[in-house]
Amino acid sequence: MQIADPFGYFMEGTNGKGVLLVHGLTGAPTEMRLVARQLNRRGYTVYAPLLAGHGGDVRRLRGTRWQDWLGSVEQAVEQLTAYTNEIFAAGICVGGKLALLAAHEQPGMLKAVAIYSPCFLYDGWNVPFYYPLLSRNITWLAHVPFLDRLNFNETSALGVKDQRMRRMMENMTKEGVIEKFPGKGLVEMYRLGRALKHELPHMMTPTLILHSREDDLSSPAHARYISDHIGAPNELRWINDSYHMIHLDRQHRQVADLTADYFGVSHVSDRL
Fold first, then answer.
1. Tell me: the pLDDT tens digits for 161-182?
2. Less Cβ around it within 10 Å: N or C end of the chain?
3. What is the CATH number of the domain that holds 69?
C-alpha cells in the first residue's frame, strides 16, 4: 500500500481480512503497532492511518474538527478494500468512536468494530478534579474565545500502568504523538461523543467493547453506556492489570487476541 503520510503503518496479511486500527486524540499510528503485530500474526492485514490534524503540533490539530478525523477513517477504509475481502475496525477512545460512526455511515463496509476504552469525558480516578467539570460544561465553554488556545497536560501515568511501556510512550513524540491536549480538541471530542450517542440506537454493526477495570482516565460507565444503548449486537469484556491505553499496556496481547477472535468467529457474519 502506498501511504501518503510518513506516520501511517501497514502490514499485509494472509487470511483475506483487514483491520483498520484508529489511534486516539493527539495519538499517532505508532501507538497501534503492538496490537497490529499480534493481529498480523493471526493473518490479518492491518492499516493504521494518521488522523487529520495529527502528527504535527498542537496548532495543526486546532485547525480540524471531528468530521475531519472521521473523513480520515472513511478514506482509509476505501484504501484497505484493495487488499482485503472483509474489513473490520478497532480504535482506542476517540478512535473507537470514529470507527463506530464510519461503520454506521458506510453500511456493510465494516463487518464489525472493536472499541477500546470508550470515553465521552475524562472522569477516571487519576484525572485532575477540574477535567470532568470542564467536560460537563464544554457546550458553553466552547464559545469562550481563548479556550482553543489553552493546552492541557497528560496525566503523569500517560494512561499506562506498565512503567516500561510508559517510557516507550514518552518516546513516541518523534513518531507523531502530540504531548498536550488542545482545548479545541477536547471540544471536538465532546461533539463527537454527542453525535455518537445520538446514533447509537440506530447502529447495527456488531461491536466488541473492551475496557479496563482500572482505567485511570475513563470510568467503566462509558463502556456500559455503549453496551446498553447501541442497537447492534455487542460483547462487553473487561481487561485487568492495565490503565486506559489497554492496546499497549500490560494486557495488549489479550486485547489483540480478543479482537482477532471476535472478528474471526462465524457468528459475526451470521449477524449481518
1. 998 888 887 778 778 888 877 7
2. C
3. 3.40.50.1820
